[in-house]
Structures are given as C-alpha cells and as structure tokens.
C-alpha cells in the first residue's frame, strides 16, 4: 500500500492511542496548538481507560463525569494560549478538566504549535513502554488531510542521548503545569531517556528528533536548508523567505499547499505547485478537505530524508514558534524522488491538481485581523483572578493590565456566560455558586468567543465535590451512576442507567429501588472477586456526596462489601 494514499492508508486517532494487550495507561502528555474540549473527552476512550462509545453515550452526563474522573490524574494536555474553542454546550464537568489542561503563553507572543503525544503504558509484570505520536493534526474535529508517525520503544536501564530532544520538550512544557503534573512529566521525560530505541519500519533506517523554539534547539539543527539535490514540500502556509531558502537546489522542486497560500514567489521557486482539488471524492465526511499536513522530502549527498511534524514552510515556524519535526532517514537506494512523487501524487484518484499561476487574492479581512490581535492583546494582558467568599455565594475578581485596542473585549466565567461584561483592569463577577467557579473563562469580541485559562486563587478545595453534587443530585441518580460505574461495558451500562432512571422516576417509594439494588449487589459481588479497585472508586464518589443522597441502606451494603474485599486481600 502507498504510504500517502489518502483514500486507503488512513489512520485512526483512537487506535493510535490504544495500548497493547495486557498493558494499561500510566501517564500521557499531549501537545497541540488548538484544543476542542469536546474532542478531549474522547481521549480516555482512545487511551484504553473507557470502552468505545458512540455519540449518544458522549451526551450522557454520567459518561462525561466518568471519563474525566478516570483520566484527569493520568493526562496532561498543553495548548497555545487562546487555542481552546468554546464548546457548543457548556457543561459543569468541563471545569473538572482544569488540572489536565494547560495553556502555554510564550514570552515572545508567538505560537506554541507542536502536535505530539508522549504515552507511557505498563503491565502487571513491571514492564513499560513509551509510544510517541508525531502529528500535524490538532486535538480538534477538523477534517483536513494530516499525517502521523507512531513509534514505540521499551523502557530499559540504558540511557540514550538520542532521546534528549524529547526530554527537553517535556521539560519545557512542564514549566507551565501545576506542581503535581510537573513532577510526573519530568518522570516521564526521564523514562524516555531510557528508551534504548524506538521501532521504525521499512523503508526507514534511522530517526532524529528536532524541536524548534526551545533552548538548545534551533533551525540549523534540522539541516533542512542545507545543500540538497531535490525537495518535495507539503505545507498549508508559506513565507517567501523560507521558500527561497528551501528551494536552493538544482533539480526537482515540488510544492503541495493551499490555494490561498500560493504566491508569485512559490510559483517561481518550484518546478510545479499543487493545491487540493475543490472537491475531494470518496471521502466519508462529505465535505471539502484541505491540506493541513507538513512534510519535507529531501535528496542529499548524506541520504534521503523525510521530515514530518508541525512546522509550516513559514518564517514564524522556523524562527519564532515552538514546533517539532521528526526526521526519518530512508534506507539506501530504497526511495528516490520519482518513487516519492508517484506515491504522493498518484496518476489515479489524485486529490491534488496543478496550479500554474497565482490565483486572485481575496481581500485581506482587516476586521478579522483586528479581532485576532485584540484576543492576543487580552490574553497577554490578563494578570490573574481571585475568589472571595460572600456569605453563601462567591465573588470573583479578574485583574488585567490596560488593553490598548479599539475592539470591545468581554469576559465571563465559563459556567456563567450570562455574566458577560466588558473587560476592565478589574472585572467583578458577584453572587456565584461554588459549582460555577472555574479557571476557565470566556473571552468575546464581536460575538467570536474562545476559552482561556486564568490562574484563579481562592477556589475552595471542595469545588469539585460541588460539581459532582450538581450532577448526582438525587438518590435515584446516585444509584444509577454506581450501576454505570460497575458496568463491564459502558454502552450497555448507559442503557441500563437510562432504564433505571426512567423506572425510579416513575415511582415515589424507596422500596421501588429494590430492582436497582439487586442489580448493584450482583455487580459489587463480582467486583469484590474480579476487580476490587472498583470499590475504591465508589468510595471516592461516596466521599464527594451528601449522606442523604447516598442513603443509609446503600452505605450499609457498601461496608459489607468493603469488609469482604479486605478479608479476601489478606
């Protein structure tokens, strides 16, 4: 199969993240430029923490709660400041993602742009391995054409300096995490240094990790601009200075890009320029897909190389942003320029077409440009926030530097969009409930909205409990959630949970809980013998809720099973 066959050689994001049989997730770090919180909720499924689900189950508040509860301690996600999109439906559970999501605000006001996954899996025998995913895709639902390379290697006692760039990238992002996650990230970085080798498949024989924009790692390390014979570039965004440098070679020079990015310099510098066709046939999405992949193939006197990662052929990518490229070396006499070209630009069902002249440029959207600049100005002006107790309610004050922009910038706590107001040096939000407190806030300019994370001091330690109580606010829901937690398959558990809710809501007497109790009793009995850790998970939920919601009858039953589990563990 051709490596770059867009119709058939398709990768599943979910499958790429899944562990090998017998292994389970220990810790994972994801790097992305933009982040969709709804997409993030699907990650626990991909990492093997939850069963595969459908879109219907993703709408269940119990499932969302369980997804976050299962994953929040084991995942750290880093994105560019201002890169979090506003969910279509804001739910209280999103606030529970705070200790898993960290925004990176670079001092030079440029972009944090890598797309990477570092994942550690382990088994019961003490063996561990690292999976590395190098992507061009962000953590969103975008349908554009992207690329990914998956590599993995076993953790050994041998330290390998070849992996130092990966450890350096993790050390860099760890500075933006909280204390607990920072420690785990640094431990992961040390584990990666002890991966003797990452597996690569034919036709490659070697690899090199190339961060950009962090200390000790510069554009020159890539050797992408060194002397070469041929070059094949895939980049959705371009800068003339980079194009001029990268095309300093005597023979083949090919570019694949977006129509909107084609410039006279691109037409003149490359032998041939391709753009994505207006309509890509035979794709399951039924919508136009543009190119988002970043790729460089070079033929040099040192061998033939393939670069894949996040860096566009742009000035910002190579001189200002934080980026990441994986450099793969081909085996000798294995893949030449013609072979690579025919693979990427096939004669049949080719998704690209030649463009021979500079297309007519659409006028610059000055209004959008002003909005984007105002968002960035606001992001870098925000200083922090503080919560103050006001009786049974809470007041929040957000502090900001003076913002120099003509745009009206509004702000609100994510859970209280109704409090949206113009951003001032001091913006006050009064009378909030505990469950509504969050480090996530909405910024709005001319109706366009993004989510940002602001360090907020004074959020009470029981805020998370308040969110749980808001979702599990009755005995009926508590019993239904426990049943859901104990299910071997969450999809089946969700159907069961919905049936329990319907059945119990139709009855008023506690005695009508009997069928649910019987089902939970059977599941707990099975858990005691097969998966006693489930009982500890239930204990965590019990700790968060009021006793009147749990009910004395359930507590009595739980204590019996807890005692039985202790006896069996002796």
CATH class of the largest domain: Alpha Beta
Q: Percent range for helical residues?
A: 25-40%
Instruction: Determine the CATH topology of the largest domain.
Output: Endonuclease, Chain A
Assembly classification: single chain
Number of domains: 4
Largest sheet: 8 strands, mixed
Mean pLDDT: 89
Radius of gyration: 26 Å
Can you describe this structure in just a few lines?
By secondary structure, the chain is α+β, with helices and mostly antiparallel strands.
Structure write-up:
The chain has 570 residues and is α+β, with helices and mostly antiparallel strands. It folds into 4 domains: 13-199, Endonuclease, Chain A; 206-354, Endonuclease, Chain A; 377-461, Immunoglobulin-like; 472-569, no CATH class. 32% of the residues lie in helices and 24% in strands. It contains 19 helices and 24 strands. An 8-stranded mixed beta sheet has the order 9-15-14-13-10-11-12-16. A hairpin with a 2-residue loop joins strand 13 and strand 14 (303-309). The longest helix is centred in the last third of the chain and has 18 residues, at 552-569. The chain is globular, with a radius of gyration of 26 Å. It starts with 12 loop residues before the first helix and ends with a helix. The model is unreliable at 507-511 (pLDDT under 50).
């Amino acid at each position: 199969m051709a490596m770059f066959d867009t119709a058939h050689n398709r990768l599943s994001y979910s499958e790429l993240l899944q562990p090998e049989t017998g292994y389970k997730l220990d810790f994972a770090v994801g790097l992305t430029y933009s982040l969709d919180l709804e997409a993030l909720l699907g990650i626990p499924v991909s990492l093997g923490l939850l069963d595969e689900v459908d879109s219907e189950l993703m709408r269940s508040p119990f499932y969302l709660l369980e997804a976050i509860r299962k994953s929040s301690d084991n995942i750290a996600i880093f994105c560019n400041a201002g890169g979090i999109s506003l969910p279509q439906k804001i739910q209280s559970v999103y606030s529970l993602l705070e200790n898993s999501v960290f925004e990176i605000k670079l001092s030079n006001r440029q972009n944090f742009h890598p797309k990477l996954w570092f994942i550690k899996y382990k088994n019961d025998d003490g063996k561990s391995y690292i999976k590395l995913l190098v992507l061009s895709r962000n953590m969103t639902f975008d349908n554009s054409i992207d690329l990914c390379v998956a590599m993995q290697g076993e953790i050994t006692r041998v330290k390998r300096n070849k992996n130092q760039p990966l450890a350096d990238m993790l050390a860099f992002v760890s500075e933006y995490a909280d204390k607990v996650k920072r420690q785990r990230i640094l431990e992961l970085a040390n584990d990666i240094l002890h991966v003797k080798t990452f597996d690569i498949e034919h036709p490659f024989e070697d690899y090199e990790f190339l961060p950009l924009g962090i200390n000790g790692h510069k554009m020159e390390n890539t050797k992408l601009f060194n002397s070469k014979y041929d070059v094949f570039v895939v980049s959705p965004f371009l800068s003339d200075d980079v194009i001029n440098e990268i095309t300093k070679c005597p023979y083949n020079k090919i570019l694949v890009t977006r129509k909107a990015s084609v410039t006279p310099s691109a037409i003149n510098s490359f032998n041939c320029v391709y753009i994505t066709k207006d309509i890509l046939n035979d794709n399951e999405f039924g919508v136009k897909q543009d190119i988002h992949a970043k790729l460089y193939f070079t033929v040099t006197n040192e061998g033939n190389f393939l670069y894949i990662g996040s860096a566009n052929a742009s000035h910002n990518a190579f001189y200002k942003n934080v980026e990441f490229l994986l450099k793969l070396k081909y085996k000798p006499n294995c893949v030449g320029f013609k072979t690579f070209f025919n693979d990427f630009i096939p004669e049949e069902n080719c998704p690209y077409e030649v463009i021979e002249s500079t297309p007519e440029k659409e006028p610059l959207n000055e209004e959008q440009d002003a909005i984007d600049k105002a968002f960035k100005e606001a992001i870098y002006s925000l200083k922090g926030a503080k919560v103050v107790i006001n009786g049974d309610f809470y007041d929040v004050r957000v502090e900001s530097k003076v913002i120099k922009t003509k745009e009206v910038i509004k702000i609100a706590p994510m859970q209280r969009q109704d409090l949206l107001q113009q951003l001032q040096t001091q913006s006050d939000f009064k009378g909030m409930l505990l469950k509504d407190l969050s480090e996530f806030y909405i910024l709005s300019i001319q109706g366009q909205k993004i989510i940002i994370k602001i360090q907020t001091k004074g959020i009470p330690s029981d805020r998370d409990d308040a969110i749980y109580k808001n979702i599990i606010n009755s005995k009926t829901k508590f019993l239904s959630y426990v049943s859901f937690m104990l299910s071997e398959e969450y999809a089946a558990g969700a159907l069961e949970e919905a049936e329990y809710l319907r059945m119990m809501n139709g009855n008023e007497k506690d005695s009508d809980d009997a069928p649910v109790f019987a089902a939970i009793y059977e599941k707990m009995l099975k858990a005691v013998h097969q998966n006693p850790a489930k009982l500890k998970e239930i204990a965590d939920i019990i700790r968060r809720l009021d006793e009147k919601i749990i009910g004395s009858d359930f507590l009595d039953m739980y204590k019996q099973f807890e005692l039985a589990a202790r006896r069996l563990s002796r």
